[in-house]
Amino acid sequence: MDLDYILGALPDLMKGLKMTLMVSALSISLSLVFGALGAALRTSSNALLRNLVVGYVEFVRGTPLLVQIFFVFFGLPSLGIRFSVFWSGVIALTVWATAFQIENARAGLASVAPGIRDASLALGLKRWQHAILVVLPIAARAALPPAMNTVVSTFKNSAYLQTIGLVELTFVAVDRIAYDFRAVEMFATICVIYLFCVFVLAGLAKLVEHRLDRPFAER
């Protein structure tokens, strides 16, 4: 293991990591928003909307992420819809992650016992107060662990975007290997970088989970 070579490659790898973090942050944020909206539609009384969301979730979960990335980047231009490499990556990752976040949020909503609604009404809470003050904290607490698993998977799956030419962390490593033939150093280094980022995400998730658990622990 040549440490001097790794240190020399770090500036390029950090540029790739910056791109990885940008595309992951956007995809994760959008998927959380769309996931919550999708879960609301998934649990609505409108059968058409419910079935549309179910069809979307099943389609995305039943097809490989790599195929979805290729469809967005190579398929949509043939239909007259073009995006840059960066936005193609964001869209593909968001579409993939949203399907899983919908199910995570739906599971959270399902964890709220029906009797709690009656208790809220008995206490005089309005429907919006019941939704925000009662349902949301309970559902978020239940949905957080699976949602964070999807967040971590979204971050790691950003490596697939090297296949469409996005200059993210894995792309930079593979590109240097093509020139320097130092596969061991490069793959070992990006593994450490990915692990570090995942540990940071896991730490943040534990902090949020602890915060959400605090009111229940006090009771």
UniProtKB/TrEMBL annotation:
Stretches assigned to coiled coil: none
GO (cellular component) term, any one: ATP-binding cassette (ABC) transporter complex
InterPro entries: AA_ABC_transptr_permease_3TM, ArtM/GltK/GlnP/TcyL/YhdX-like, MetI-like, MetI-like_sf
Intracellular or extracellular location(s): Cell inner membrane; Cell membrane
Domain ABC transmembrane type-1 residues, every copy: 17-205
TM stretches of this protein: 20-41, 53-74, 80-100, 186-205
Topology term for the membrane: Multi-pass membrane protein
Keyword flag Transport: yes
Protein name stated in the entry: Amino acid ABC transporter permease
Organism of provenance: Bosea vaviloviae
